[in-house]
Each structure stands twice: as C-alpha cells, then as structure tokens.
Amino acid sequence: MKRWISAATIALAAPQAVAAQPAPDPLTAPIPSSRAADWMKPQTPLRIWGDTYYVGLGGLSVVLIKSDAGLILIDGSMPQSAAMVEAHIRQLGFRVEDIKYILVTEPHFDHAGGVAAIARDSGATAVASPATAKALRAGAANPDDPQYGSLPAFPAVTRVREIGDGQSVRLGRVTVTARFTPGHTAGSTSWTWTSCETGRCLNMVFAASLNPVSATGFRFSDIAAHGDLPAVFRRSRARLAALPCDVLVSAHPDNSGADLKLKALQAGRTPNPFIDPGACRAYAAKAQALFAARMAKEKAERPG
C-alpha cells in the first residue's frame, strides 16, 4: 500500500533551522592592540569620593559623576570595553540612559573609542576641546597628533559639543570645568570639579596624559616642523601642578598610581587612599622626567 507523507511530517523531520545571528555592532567592534589585554584588566567599580565613581577598567580610567539632574561620564575607553563600562554603571545602581554628557580627554581609540557606543546607548552628548571634537567627528587622530599614522581609527561620534579652555559643563548642582593641557595631543583636556561627602568637599581632577609618545620618526624637539612642543608640555605640566587637587585620576591609572589606590580602596583601606593634595604635582613631575628622557634620547640620536 502506498504511504502518503504530509508536508507537516516532512517539516518535523527536517533539521532545525539555525537561528539568525545578530549583525555585528560596528560601534563595539574590537580594535586590536598589543596593550588591550593589559588595559582591559578587570576592575570592580568603586565610589572614589562623594558622588564620584570609578567605572573604568584596570588600565583605562573612566569616571562617573552623579548629579541631581543626571550623570556625567569622563572618557569612554575602547569600543570593545564599552559594554563593560555600561555594566559597571548598572552595577553601581545607575542607569546608562541617565548619562547626559561624556567628557573626553583625548581623541585616541583607547580613551574615545567607546564614546560613540555609549553615546548611542544613553543619548548623551560628547563634550571636548575644538581639536579633540574635530577628531571625534572624523573617528581618527588629527594630522598634528604626535602619534598620527600609528593609531587605528575608531567609531566616529555624531553628537559633539565643543568647549573652550576654562569653560564649564553644568548638570544640576554639578559643574565640571575644562582645563586644556595639550602636548600628548593638541586637544588634550583635563577636567576638574568638586565632590562632597559628609560635609567635606574635595577638589577632583581627571588628568589627560602628559607623556611624550609618538609615531616612529616624530621628534618633539623639531620646532620647525611641529612648533615649540617643549614649551607646550612645560606649560601643561605647570598648569596641572598648580591646580587645586585633592583627588587625582589619570587617563591611564598606572601613570599616576591610581591603579594602586583602586586596589587599596577596594580592600577597604583607610583613610581614603585617593586623598592626596600632592598628587597633581607628583604627576607633573613624573611627566617632566619622561619628557626630559625623551629629549635626551632625541639629542643622542641627532645626526652629527
């Protein structure tokens, strides 16, 4: 007898269809770097002081400031770590959607690469110096960057507000002021604000990098080609050293000892290890030593 097999039976016998995979997110696609593993070391999010929190990674600083009208973020780390930053924000009990501004120190993939994704997820506006804003919109370092040509591109940022030196971003009762500290990049910006806890208000500083890093062949001592960069670095170091500075976080925590302070804070050490009125002066002195070493190296390598 001939057997008839229904279409439904055939469908049941067919292999299960493979579920459609979500399309890759272009704003969080990993940017390869030999330093990525070190930069992305795990770090527990912590309250540093008052309404200021560390939500970054072991090797890349990201700071969250809580106001009565929303949240301010400083820097965004790399594209592939944006989700980690957002997870840290939620872990502390905050909403990513409440971020109103993302302040940017410098337009390199390790500090600004995750800004586009976090801005998209939160609806925030990025705020940066004019030179940094130009690079953010392009998704690449500017030609006057000492590392130009050696840095990868990063996701471009569409909502960018430019800010001038000494101007401030205000959100509720929180005011964060831009302090231009160029050298590492032409648009490098450090940020200052006040954070209070149990009636004690401290001067907070998020410092941009001040170390002389460059692409191969770039000479900081070549004033004819690049302008008087030694003087630019000198002014930036002096400015940072002179800031009212009770608590310092540097763009890379290990550049200022903030990595060790985070470990101590997480371990519950008292008094608060971040409170150090001499931190900015020490950071500037370390940067001065690095620049002096770089200039001596360039002098030794100079033909004739």
The overall average pLDDT, rounded, is 94
Using only C-alpha atoms, the radius of gyration works out to 23 Å
Structural class: alpha/beta
SSE order, one letter for each helix or strand: HHEEEEHEHHEHEEEEEHHEHH
Helix content: 25-40%
Q: At the fourth CATH level, what is the homologous superfamily?
A: Ribonuclease Z/Hydroxyacylglutathione hydrolase-like
| Domains (count) | 1
Q: Overall 3D geometry?
A: globular
Strand order of the largest sheet: 1-2-3-4-5-6-7
Under the CATH scheme, which class?
Answer: Alpha Beta
What is the CATH topology descriptor? Answer: Metallo-beta-lactamase, Chain A
Strand runs, count: 12
Unreliable residue stretches: 1-14
Q: Kindly, what is the distance between the CA atoms of the first and last residues, rounded to a whole number of angstroms? A: 101 Å
Level-2 CATH architecture: 4-Layer Sandwich
Biggest sheet, open or closed, and with what strands and sense? 7 strands, mixed
Tally of DSSP helical segments: 10
Strand proportion, as a percent range, falls in: 15-25%
Question: What can you see in these coordinates?
Answer:
With 304 residues, the protein is of the alpha/beta class. It has a single domain, classed as 4-Layer Sandwich (Metallo-beta-lactamase, Chain A). It has ten helices and twelve strands. Helix 8 packs antiparallel against helix 10 (279-301). The longest helix is centred in the last third of the chain and has 23 residues, at 279-301. Residues 1-14 have low confidence and may be disordered.
